[in-house]
Design goal:
Shape: globular
Number of strands: 0
Number of helices: 20
CATH class: Mainly Alpha
Radius of gyration: 22 Å
Distance between the termini: 35 Å
Largest sheet: none
Helix content: over 70%
Strand content: under 5%
CATH architecture: Up-down Bundle
Number of domains: 1
Mean pLDDT: 83
CATH topology: Sodium/glucose cotransporter
Structural class: mainly alpha
Length: 559
């Protein structure tokens, strides 16, 4: 493990009454949205999936906001300060294609099967063992990721505002607990829409002022090329197999490990994201949800990458023993150096909003999976609907408390994005291989889901903790190790699924309708509605447009 990282105490911000007033107004609005959403919560479907009633633009913005947590803001800025322009891979190859695939290919299966969660789909496609294992793994992962958000929030608030860590954890946890418990998923989603704009209002001034501080884009790239080498400001420079580069990965592990396995594993099976699409009012809106989110995702990379690159110029020794600033300090450092009061209050509010959005997404998905997939299926069966709403609120409180307990696991990573990618390689990638084989191969047997998931998770963990950490194979960086772990988990899960399927009975074809590609259930049929001829209502056009735009963005960074 790496040395624990703490945000430098010298980063204390000169906040005043105006900044705290902005912060107070934001918290009041958050709770107000929770109480307003409470009126719509009458059934468990309302509490866990907003009654499947939300329009695509709402669910699309919530989809991207749930991902744009402060762990991503701090983590991707840290990535940029440490690895340079390679950060664009996490967006243009590590997000957009998978988001398009989710919208065009997988959402018809999820939404058409009327499942309430991602693990429930495995119950329909495979059996109870695969369902229970996936539910437990997802619930555990959700608490770990929520803990990352809480830990990062505590460090930021302590360094910037001087609040003790436990105060920051309790305050943020209370507000997330309050508005999810009161208003359910609708409250979380509407707050995420608000948080999306607050986060942008925080990041845009930091990006513009930091770019101006280092002499514009030309001044930024010239400085970094001199201090870190030409490869630091390109996307693909030095990624040939056997070549050395800051990221510690070659083009093959970037394309397969990040662009395919990690990316598709996260975006297509992470219920914290998929849950937003499942709350859409119809199948068309559900399909458009990740596609609408893909367009802002293309450009958000500039708002997190440029500050990280600027920090690498302004603090040349950042992240090394020669500086008291770590990579995770990039955004807080720029806030301290560049922002006046008022704007500073908006930036602090944006960071807190981002932490709360990320935590809320994981807690709301955790309470859904634990209640509907574990408690209702295996512990307290066939109770009245109101019982599950009450239990959902109780397990939300337990989830928040548990995430406080897991928060400090993130302290062993100097780059919190590395920690998140490690978790995704353990939990999301094995689930993806089970989904993708189950959706496209009718012969995949009921038992293969459980054993594929178990084998994939085990292989990813063995690669990381044994092969990488024990130095059996030399992998230069944590991120490079994550890419290899993801590939190992995918291959192991696929091989085991195929082997088990060849020796066990497949599920009857009649039970696979609407669950495997090429089959259709009555629930998946949806008559066209008025206005479906509009270009923005055509999922295929939206999806391919996002892919082409993301590919075009690579051109300036490829040379």
């Amino acid at each position: 493990m790496q040395t624990p990282t703490y945000l430098a105490s010298a980063l204390r911000l000169p906040t005043n009454g105006l900044d705290y007033a902005i912060l107070g107004i934001y918290f009041a609005v958050v709770l107000g949205i929770g109480f307003a959403a409470r009126r719509s919560v009458k059934t468990s479907l309302d509490f866990f999936l907003s009654g499947r009633s939300l329009p695509a633009w709402i669910t699309g913005l919530a989809f991207i906001s749930a991902n744009l947590a402060a762990t991503e803001i701090l983590g991707m800025a840290a990535n940029s300060a440490q690895y340079g322009a390679y950060t664009v891979h996490w967006y243009w190859i590590g997000a957009i294609p998978a988001m398009v695939f989710l919208g065009l290919v997988m959402m018809p299966f999820y939404y058409g099967s009327k499942v309430r969660s991602v693990p429930e789909f495995l119950l329909l496609r495979f059996d109870k063992s695969a369902h229970l294992l996936s539910s437990i793994l997802f619930a555990f992962a959700a608490i770990l990721v929520a803990g990352v958000n809480l830990y990062a929030l505590a460090l930021v608030v302590e360094a910037l505002l001087g609040w003790p860590q436990w105060v920051a954890i309790v305050v943020a946890g209370f507000f997330v607990l309050a508005y999810i418990t009161i208003g359910g998923l609708s409250s979380a989603i509407y707050n995420e829409v608000l948080q999306f704009f607050v986060i942008l209002a925080a990041l845009i001034p930091i990006t513009v002022l930091s770019l101006k501080k280092v002499g514009g884009w030309d001044g930024l790239t010239d400085s970094l090329a001199k201090s870190h080498g030409d490869d630091f400001v390109t996307a693909w420079g030095g990624t040939g197999i056997g070549s050395a580069n800051p990221l510690g990965a070659n083009w093959l592990t970037i394309v397969l490990g990040l662009g395919f396995v990690l990316s598709f594993g996260y975006w297509t099976t992470n219920f914290a994201e998929v849950q937003r699409a499942l709350s859409a009012k119809n199948l068309s809106a559900a399909k458009r949800t990740p596609l609408i989110a893909a367009f802002p995702k293309i450009f958000i990379v500039f708002l997190v990458m440029i500050p990280g690159l600027a920090a690498a110029v302004l603090v040349p020794k950042i992240g090394t023993s020669a500086s008291d600033l770590q990579y995770n300090d990039a955004i807080p450092y720029l806030m301290q150096e560049l922002l006046p009061n008022g704007v500073l209050g908006i930036a602090v509010t944006g960071l807190l909003a981002a932490f709360m959005a990320g935590m809320a997404a994981n807690i709301s998905s955790f309470n859904t999976v634990f209640t509907t997939d574990i408690w209702a299926k295996y512990v307290a069966k066939d109770r009245e609907d109101s019982y599950y709403v009450r239990f959902g609120r109780l397990i939300t409180a337990i989830g928040v408390l548990a995430s406080m307990g897991t928060a400090f696991l993130a302290s062993s990573f100097s780059n919190i994005m590395s920690y998140l990618q490690t978790l995704f390689s353990f939990f999301n990638v094995p689930m993806f291989v089970v989904f993708i084989i189950g959706m496209f191969w009718k012969r995949a047997s009921m038992k293969s889901g459980f054993w594929g998931l178990l084998a994939g998770t085990t292989a990813a963990m063995v690669n990381y903790f044994v092969i990488y950490k024990q130095g059996i194979i030399d992998i230069p960086t944590d991120q490079g190790a994550n890419f290899v772990s993801a590939i190992a988990g995918f291959v192991a899960g696929a091989v085991v699924m195929v082997a088990v399927s060849l020796f066990t009975e497949p599920k009857p074809v009649a039970e696979l309708q609407g669950l495997v590609y090429g089959t259709r259930s009555p629930g998946m049929a949806e008559p066209p509605s008025a206005g479906d001829d509009a270009w923005y209502r055509k999922p295929a056009l939206l999806g391919w447009g996002a892919v082409v735009l993301a590919a075009a963005c690579y051109i300036p960074f490829s040379f």
